[in-house]
Write a structure and sequence with these properties.
Layout (H helix, E strand, L loop, with lengths): L1 E9 L5 E9 L26 E8 L4 E8 L5 E4 L25 E7 L4 E8 L14 E5 L13 H4 L5 E6 L1 E2 L2
Antiparallel strand pairs: 1-2, 1-10, 2-3, 3-7, 4-6, 4-8, 8-9
Amino acid sequence: MVLKAVCVLKGAGETSGTVYFEQESDSGPSDHVPQATRKSFTPLCSDSAPVKLTGEIKGLTPGEHGFHVHAFGDNTNGCVSAGPHYNPHNKTHAGPNDEVRHVGDLGNVTAGADNVAKINITDKLLTLAGQYSIIGRTMVIHEKADDLGKGGNDESLKTGNAGGRLACGVIGITQ
């Protein structure tokens, strides 16, 4: 069974997009779960099953833009109320391939001359189920490139110096 989620990104300006998430689960409903409750049965994901992100973001300046899952699904004050990067293990900020990093650190996406970033990311720390699920949290695209924690200052180890938040949206379950 594949778990799926979606995030519709919107900002105050021209930036918008859609991100799709998929993750293989260990199993679907088991035979001992009554048929009537199988739709509400929540499978557990394998710790080793990566999450695949696809989609596109429009209205960006050409170049790299930081791309992160933030802690809260609260967009009541725009993207600011989404809080810091999702970091349940209290690690420092880093790149998506680094051993020590925030769960929400996805590095950069690159917009071309057409102002569009195509997303095709596979991440080993994100999960769509269980205690550390990203469902209900906020995806954010930033104005600047993420320095992946290598900027040599305190802010680099928190945010990657990725700058302001151009657009965001809450990650939700989909079919």
